[in-house]
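debug: dumping io for the single-chain case to check the tokenizer round-trip. Nothing else runs in this session.
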Amino acid sequence: MPCGRSMKRSPDLLRLADTVLLPGFTGTTAPGWVRRRLAGGLAGVVLFSRNVDTPAQLAALTTALRAENPEILIGIDEEAGEVTRLEARTGSSRPGNYALGIVDDVDLTERVARDIGRDLRAVGVNIDFAPAADVNSNPDNPVIGLRSFGADPLLVARHTAAWIRGLQSTGVAACAKHFPGHGDTSVDSHHGVPRVTVSREELAEVELWPFRVAIEEGVRSIMTGHLLVTAYDEELPATLSPRVLTGLLREELGFEGLIVTDGIEMAAVSGRYGLGGASAMAVAAGADAVCVGGENADEATYEHIRDAVADAVTEGRLPEERLADAAARVRALTAWQAQAAPPSSNDGQDDGQDEAGLVAARRAVRVTRHRADGLLPLTAAPHVVELAPETNLAIDKDMPWGAGEPLGKLLPGTTVARLRQPDVHNGVAGAVLRQAADRPLVIVVRDAHRHPWQTDLLESLLAARPDGVVVEMGLPGRTDLGAVHIATHGAARVCGQAAAEVLAGLA
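debug: decoded output
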């Protein structure tokens, strides 16, 4: 860096740059550098599962953060289902969006979101980076899938609106994402640049429809997607594009709330422009808050980004008025949350959160029987083999999932084997069949249609055991596999519980 450049950064300009940054950090207590920077004007922080142990610990953490500055944003990705931070250690007590879309009961969706809002408000979080308003029109999408309410834009729109109503009724801001829609993509923006190549007319009819409805519902924030939307900008991803953020979202759709970026460290934007460059470009394009998460969770990274934003002002690439406008929108959101009444404890809900989530998971299960004989309920303890694919970076790698563990509680003696792709070799099918000899065989898969190794092993097992029961805990690409096919439409803990109840004859 040229030695003269830092001299141009006045303290006031650096403080202004602070007001648009939301860094992450490591640990379950507040690091000194985060507390110091919050006291100096940092907009807030983003929390991940690495910051969460118990509700009491999380509440203590947010209290410590807010002691430095009561008017900060504390955000988290709590979508429920596969993307949960509050319950990453246990698995979610609520199914994700896809299961809610299968049930298609907007009152239930609103109720689940209200439960989430209560939990977040209780631990001091005031913005939830949810719901995903993406229309999952590409079943091979590697990053959205079960995070979407479905492939029908009208269904996605009505459940997006219900989710926003439920969450924001508790005083926690919702954040519809990933604008202008990540559903029709085949690339994960954590790793590359997804392209959306439909026309403006097609975009308006599908991808943009849930966002229009979210804006009408009064959503307080919208998160950008790192997507190249060629109908509006053939060069810059949406997060960095004035045509998308200012022209489309602000001017055409009329959104006046907070625009927040997806993690700026993701390769789709930082790979070409760097963390600092992408952050400055995002604010110049119309974003009001820059999320910095992932592994870039230290003070040096934060300072680099803050300095890059300030330098963009001094060099004329980012108008200071735009930066000040972004800061004002951050303050407006914290003011809204501060004035929000605490959620009522009896606003039409009779059951606890676990019961609401379990009700939704049970209603989302679909059973397809291909044999007339009574395979279900299982009358003996089965052998369960779970085929575990690699998940995308939005999902915690170690989060519990599956049907074997809850089934073991209902049918003692159940045995469980979990296989990943490296475990699958020529002799693995024979080993599974020997383990399941003279016992029911249950094969649990997850997005089998996207993983040939799962489909190949599944077909080999079923050729030898046509009485095998298949439980699909991802998107059900095929329901014709197995003597009985059970689709849970989610891999949350409650989805596994709901499947186990079907297998054991309790549902």
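debug: round-trip ok. Residues 124 and 273 are 34 Å apart (CA to CA).
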